[in-house]
Amino acid sequence: MIIDNIEIKGVTCDSRKVKEGYAFVALIGEKNDGNNYIDEAIQKGASIIFTEKDIEIKTVPVKKVENARRKLAELCNTFYEYPTEKLTVIGVTGTNGKTTTTHLIYHILKSNGISTGLIGTLNTKINDKEYKNQLTTPDAEVIYAYLHKMVKEKVQVVVLEVSSHGLKNERVWGIEFDIAVHTNIERDHLYFHKTLEDYIASKKKLFDHLSPGKIGIINLDDDGGVKLLDKNNHILVITYGLSGKATITASSIDTGLTTSFTFCLQRGLTTLSGVEIEAFEYPFSIDIIGKHNIYNTLAAITCGLLLDIPIEAMAKSLKKFKNVPRRMDIIYQGEYTIIDDFCHNPASYETVFESIQSMPYKNLHIINAIRGNRGIEINYEIAEIMKQWQSILKAETIVITESVDYTEPLDVVGKKERDIFIEVLSRENISFTYEKKLKDSIKNIMPKLGKGDILLLLGAQGMNHGAEVCMRYLRARNTYEKAPHTIGYQDIIPRH
């Protein structure tokens, strides 16, 4: 790449990564200002600087830009030779369900012989290779580097988990999406977006930037879905949901420790290759829990149809799908059952409790990790949800914890966050205990579990190591039986 007759050998916004001949883009972040690291970047060999500020430097060219984050994405796109022009790209956005839906799509495609890549919360996958991510939607320079690598490794389709942070911060600017999927929109990340309107506007960007004729897949049962389509008459829209008005819906639903339903295409659709598919029905059975996962599966199957995968082949491949870690994940099933979920907002707690309501159990036990460093409001709302459902589910034991023994610095629970949680639960005289350490929470509750009981491990980053601690306890007590997922939890650090 040549800029002003200068050969650019790399692009970065991180001064620590700068090498000789790199372009350095100074981003203004929530805590750090990249402009403070321009001198360091130049010392390391940066040959050109991009910034939103008026800065004069005589040793290297400085380009003032209106939007440095967008410029970073543009530079990376050019440097890596526009990788998404050579890929079919599916983007999935929403408050909840992004991770499960992207993994379902990835599984369907890969199981049916399509070379597939995935970029999301848990990891990046390029066919059978896996790489760790720190963010749901990584920075533009990381995304474009992965996309370039996927092109080199002959990937045909890439599935991206697209967060509101990623959209607002222009991390996916310039990516040519062929299909955009909406799962749902609930109140979340308001510590970052400040208002629900800004949150929805950020999600809407994914659909606003679709080229004419590209496809938007919208959850019709979610009130936010219609808002994403405002002034987007240039795209093709497919709706899904349990409403009879949706293009794609489900019937004969049966949920429990497994889920079965009949997939119903109520009106014909045209695939990306131009094949016409007439209305039909087909039965599915999948080993994942909860009504919400019917929505996720409907969206994934729809993507498969648009890519010409036969419905029979998808039904066969989904029977082998193993649940995504920390998403209503049955980590142990023996005399009693232990389920792990990355609850991080009120809607996700509602979803878990609704799913548990349809399951048989003798006694229900809950360990919940308080949401750290996300404010009082969200913890107040989560505690209210837990209080309301306690009377419905008749939870035998509730333990709340700060997880001080496992929480990373960015996720430490503040005193006010802890106090509001305790205050809400105390108002109704709900029986609960508070533990500072996650390890103590699990150690104290495990002896209480009896035949037919369910233990829920709930919470975001504070519960990331809950499954690992449980398994260690079970092994020590010689009660461990092989579970669907027993390794790797120490490496799972979901971010926004």
From TrEMBL:
Pathway assigned to this chain's UniProt record: Cell wall biogenesis; peptidoglycan biosynthesis
Nuclease in keyword set: no
Protein's name in the database: UDP-N-acetylmuramoylalanyl-D-glutamate--2,6-diaminopimelate ligase
Compartment annotation: Cytoplasm
Domain Mur ligase C-terminal: 326-460
GO biological process: cell division; cell wall organization; peptidoglycan biosynthetic process; regulation of cell shape
UniProt KW keywords: ATP-binding, Cell cycle, Cell division, Cell shape, Cell wall biogenesis/degradation, Cytoplasm, Ligase, Nucleotide-binding, Peptidoglycan synthesis
Origin organism lineage: Bacteria, Bacillati, Bacillota, Clostridia, Peptostreptococcales
Molecular-function GO term, any one: ATP binding
The species this protein was found in: Natronincola peptidivorans
NCBIfam families named among the record's database cross-references: murE
